[in-house]
Design a protein that fits this description.
The chain is α/β, with parallel strands linked by helices. It has 3 domains: 99 residues, Translation factors (Elongation Factor Tu (Ef-tu), domain 3, Beta Barrel); 109 residues, Rossmann fold (3-Layer(aba) Sandwich), CATH 3.40.50; 86 residues, Beta-grasp domain (Ubiquitin-like (UB roll), Roll). The protein contains 7 helices and 19 strands. The strands form 4 sheets. Strands 1, 2, 3, 4, 5, 6 and 7 form a 7-stranded antiparallel beta sheet that branches. The longest helix has 13 residues. The two termini are 18 Å apart.
């Protein structure tokens, strides 16, 4: 972990839905936690008997309260290990290490109105964003889609907090979110924010662009597990080290497991912090990030090891 890491312990755990647990984290030394703003996330480091998992989770509490941090973790069906570890191994009193908060999903203070669109566990960043919205008196709508009533994490709390500004779409009840209808009726100057499954995020981005929304008014965040693939080896030009990347492990994680220090922030292909120069590849780079342009991806000279992979026999990077 970097110098900005913080040692915390788990003060409380609450089961929110059959698949979601809510964790309250406090500083191990009893002090205040670093300040944050709505939409911020932290990276939680978990030591599972020598294997370290690092997962990003949105902060959900009020930015005005730094006595504790609040995160919620959905148990993923195809977990790389982190979400299962949080659900099965972490108990009240457990010690964890986290990074200081980073915000790549902040509410724009220039927006005339704010439309928040969440799918499933994607509701989490909006829980803190709503505090910032309320404090600033911003106009907003919340649209929250989930598969069945028992999986609507925090829906009762949101109904009480947001009133008529909150709209719920329960798949099992046959109620579907019409993204085009929502976006097409917004006044000029509105900003849209989406967090949820990849298909929902892609649909919102595509619809907003199709309707002519300015790119700077469209915001998204996604913390899904990076896709797996075939194992491959990556050679590091500066150190001469060669690292095996297993099929179920990201290249970033494999490099970290091998003791390689590589700067990272979002771990989801959005921020660009871990961008790595590719010196040679005798196969294909499999880009899964939202940071590089299509031209940059086509050039084969850069990749995001947090989410991207390679299908090749020889990959050489400038590390």
């Amino acid at each position: 972990m970097s110098l900005n890491s913080v040692n915390v312990k788990v003060a409380a755990i609450e089961r929110v839905t059959p698949l979601v647990k809510h964790f309250t984290l406090v500083r191990e030394d009893g002090g205040k936690l670093p300040p944050f703003s709505g939409g911020s996330h932290i990276v939680v480091s978990m030591d599972a008997g020598g294997k370290v998992y690092r997962n990003a989770y949105s902060l959900m509490g009020s930015p005005e309260d730094t006595d504790a941090y609040h995160i919620s973790v959905r148990r993923q069906e195809r977990s790389r290990g982190g979400s299962v570890f949080m659900h099965d191994k972490v108990t009240e009193g457990s010690a964890l290490q986290i990074t200081a908060p980073t915000n790549l999903f902040a509410i724009s203070r220039m927006g005339r109105k704010h439309v928040l669109i969440a799918g499933g566990i994607g509701i989490t960043p909006f829980m803190s964003q709503l505090h910032d919205i309320a404090r600033n008196g911003f106009d907003y709508e919340l649209h929250y889609a989930f598969r069945s009533p028992e999986h609507g994490a925090f829906s009762d709390q949101l109904k009480a907090r947001c009133g008529e500004r909150a709209h719920f779409y329960v798949d099992s009840n046959g109620k579907k979110l019409d993204i085009r209808e929502v976006l097409s009726r917004q006044p000029l100057g509105t900003h849209v924010y989406v967090c949820g499954p990849g298909t929902m995020v892609a649909a919102v981005l595509e619809t907003a662009r199709d309707l002519g929304w300015p790119e700077r008014h469209i915001h998204s965040e996604q913390f899904g597990a990076p896709p797996g693939g075939e194992p491959f080896k990556v050679a590091l030009a500066k150190s001469g080290l060669e690292v095996e990347v297993p099929g179920d492990t990201s290249m970033l994680q494999a490099l970290e497991d091998a003791g390689v220090e590589i700067d990272s922030l979002c771990r989801g292909g959005a921020c660009g912090r871990c961008m790595t120069e590719v010196l040679a590849c005798d196969g294909e780079l499999l880009h899964h990030d939202d940071y590089l342009s299509e031209a940059e991806k086509a050039s084969g000279k850069k990749m995001m090891p947090c989410v991207s992979r390679a299908r090749c026999t020889h990959l050489l990077v400038n590390l």
